[in-house]
Amino acid sequence: MVGYCKKCGFIGAVALNKKCKNCGMKLNALSEKMKQKYNIYTDDWSSFVFGIRKLNSEDEKKCKVDELLIRKNNFIINEVANNPLFSNEEYEKQVQKDREFFNDFYNISQYQDNKRKR
Question: N or C: which end of the chain has fewer CB within 10 A?
């Protein structure tokens, strides 16, 4: 199950406790309808994310990462930001964490790619 936080904008897999790993709020289920509408966390989401690793240039990777973040941002802006619990400050922290995650992810994959070429 994929959930989202109405306070900080976290979106991700729901652990057993169903609470946001960042702010502790109860996560809400991200419905299939919303996944399809915003094209996030659908079946092709994982292949899209992992497909970025295969891109050659850092610019291509950055464009695809930006596309992922824009999809998530569209969901937050249109479906969550009007909630009185929503904190733009907390959301900005989430966006930064997402960017850091993807940057780390691609640095690791670059290391693995270099290691395979040897």
Answer: C
How far is 73 from 92, CA to CA, in rounded Å? 10
> Across the strands, what pairs with 19?
26
Which residue from 41, 46, 33 is spatially nearest to 3, judged by alpha carbons?
A: 41
Residue 11 tokens, joined: 């979106």
Q: Domain range spanning residue 16?
A: 2-117
Q: What is the residue-averaged pLDDT of the chain?
A: 83
The pTM assigned to this predicted structure is 0.78
Cα–Cα nearest to 22, from 102, 93, 84, 114: 93
Query: Cα–Cα distance between 35 and 112 in angstroms, integer?
Result: 31
Domain total in the chain = 1
Structure tokens given for 52 = 């970025």
